[in-house]
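Retro notes
What went well: the complex prediction finally ran end to end.
Inputs used:
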Amino acid sequence: MKINVVNDFVIRFANVNGSGSASTNNMFAKSIFRMGIPVSPKNIFPSNIQGLPTWFEVRVNENGYLGRRDGVDIMVSLNPQSLVPDIESVNQGGYFIYDSTKKLHSQYIRPDINYVGIPMMQLAMDNFKIPRLQQLFKNVIYLGALCALINIDIDIVKGIIAEQFEKKQKLIPSNYLALDLGFNWVKENLEYPLGITVNTSDKLGNKILVEGNDASALGAVYGGATVIGWYPITPSTSIAGGFENYCKKYRVDKDSGKNKYAVVQAEDELAAMGMVIGASWNGARAFTTTSGPGVSLMSEFIGLAYFAEIPVVLINVQRGGPSTGMPTRTQQPDILSTAYCSHGDTKHPMLFPSNPTECFEMTAESLDLANILQTPVFLMSDLDLGMNYHVTEPFKWDDNKKYNMGKILSAEDLDKLEEWGRYLDVDKDGICYRTIPGTHPSKGSFFTRGTSRDEYAKYTEDGSVYVRVVDRILKKWDTTKKHVPGPEFYQKEYNSQYGLIFFGTTTYSALEAMDIMEAEGIEIDSMRIKSFPFNEQVEDFLTKHDYIFVIEQNRDAQFRSLIINELDINPSKLIPILNYDGMPITAATIINLIEKTNILPFKVEQV
Amino acid sequence: MTFVKPTFRHPKQATNKIGFVKSDYEGTISTLCAGCGHDSISASIVQACYDMSIEPHKLAKISGIGCSSKTPTYFLSNSHGFNSVHGRMPSVTTGANMANKDLIYLGVSGDGDTASIGMGQFVHAVRRNLNMVYIVMNNGCYGLTKGQDSATADFGSIGKSKIPTPFQAIDLAALCLELGGTFVARSFSGDKNQLIPLIKAGISHPGFAFIDCISPCVTFNNNTNSTKSYTFVRDHHEATGTLDYIPPEKEISIDYEGITQVKLHDGSMLNLSKLSPNWNPKDRFSTVKRLAEAKENGQILTGLLYIDTESQDLHTINNTVDIPLNQLKEKDLCPGSKTLEKINEGFR
């Protein structure tokens, strides 16, 4: 039996980490993308530099479903360590492509899958002298072989190689040679193509293929961030690196050669947050990026920024917790710890991007929001979104856009004012006017502190004044609802008593699950939440539906708890649909879990 | 005790070069214990800023938590102040400094704030040669929590607990020196003649200026057997020399024996008369040696211990533009939509 499909399959590469495979595998994904076919690569890597198993999974889907799909149709096996589970994971009728330099032992032969042996290492040894190059080019050899096996346009791959080595031109011919070696060996020795092939399509329009972290880095540049304090932590590190790289390109003053940005690699996450607070207090647009453990460390400072009302932008690229947890796997596990981060009564706005385009837009937007609201704002990305390439709409920028620094008084403003208090709610929206150090020789100075203070920033232990101040900050919370992006709905009007709620990277698979259910004739309304605090539209959706499935990627249904806690919703209405094994949630998981609840009065065919 | 400071001023009070009277540099009334060394340091800061004619709004005062960190309320009311969290003043100052390189940053900390909870941030601020003055008001104990030993309490010193400190003390000045600090000083709150010029020199120094200032805690650590008591410090401190700070506009040429002249980048001059022959404040090794000798002899060495006038601060290292980052606008910062289209093309 052989699987026969065009443009609809999952291919998985089993590699050893540190062998240079990720760059080859990304080239594979990009080639499919350039053929106009929706593609969704996922790098499933260990927290290690060299020697451990690593996988790279690519879903190719003509219909544009970009969520993960379980099951492997083609396995490209390069790692003996994971051979047994890799063979087991192949779908019936699927293909197992392996390095036949050494014969595969008969115990590894499954009768229901198809074996494709290619002497990759032999070809590499015969053609390249240096062991490290043999290793690297073995990767390119299997890429060449795949071109023949599934009909990838080899000229597209060559084009990508040429771009990749634009600055190291002398590497291009040897890469081409390796590519041709694999390609020709298949042509000369095997029946090709396989039953699974790709065919040029036009499903992508002007879309781009980019990582969420890269998008956030670019969003920070466009959004006018000038200061970043950061500390390395997977999976957020590439945002800081990306920001610096883009700044080197676009933020160097042409005349002086000097930098219009400051990147400070801090000694730890505490210091990173302190730097952002100091810079924002001093009127710069500043941000940091980290993951769960870093947020935990920063939490004392986040409370300070909340209470002293200092803008902060924090991009939390979530990973599997608790503690060090699964540092190279994805989850949405920091919802509650971020929403109420720090001691005392605190709560913070969060934005939930679901694709790189939103990472770009929301990073820029959060720099405005933090300054408008004078409070920490969290962009809740995750490892899947941040570190994997996603097909997404191209980035757009309105050149007329002005950076919003919120309510800041200039020297002229101060001269005109008879009276000013840092924490006076003049506009009755809970947001007060602040001053930046260095503005005026005799007016506007005040003492910023994390202790209780009155409207004029004077220290106080008077309980009634304290209550007045914290209640005013709560009023700001109401104002916040008007500033953060509202939810997205997938129906013009409500059609059902059943509802789906999801956010962030769960969106891909939720959309696919919705389509599958719709095809089965099941009507269900859906809402994607883009931010916290929840606005009236969110509340309305919750009141108008009797049963609402809340899909999220953590064990404790944290988002559901947040809804219940903030909106006083009857918990029995909200049914948790949870995936927390560290792999991005699939449409099949969503449907199967919904089925199991026995709440829907109809059956969905098992996917 | 009154908490109200009289606002009456003599109409003919002297003014400094930019027209401010000394009281313009003062703060609200101190709520520290009567006789606290910290109040003398605050007074020295007021005097130094007045003398130097610093525009109050061009200075930002930043602190952590503790008695020492409360002091920024007691000086420079016309300057922005930031009382941050315990031990984290250096990072807040780093961020503030990155945002606006044009201000003077005065960081105030204590021995608990710096040598314990904030040790990590302190050492990294030194490494980065952040352009700031960092004053540790060092009393060897946790005053605000009623007198527990701190990490700078000397071995064998007896504080509030009446038990000799069983642990080795951290010498912050020696540590700063080891880490490549570019301006290292130690002083005593009771010696304003030494402290005021040190603060001025620190402000003029274009990098990290560290002043470890012994400042006795009258309430919890002023016993005869404490090495941070007034009596002990008065009896044991040995000045490395006397220091005169000469502001840029005054050209005074001194040419007599025993005086080392140090010229700072802003044109000011330090005239340093040395009391110790085998020590050169511009030679790190000789200072390390001199400090070690003093420790061996039970002396508290004070004065400007080391200075490197050629160092590069964090902005120079990072090559940031001359205009402060917090003043850059859209046209300076945003690459624009056309560039974005090209960037998009790179993702296809």
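What we learned: Residues 22-346 of chain B form a domain with the Rossmann fold fold (CATH 3.40.50.970).
What to try next: split runs per interface for comparison.
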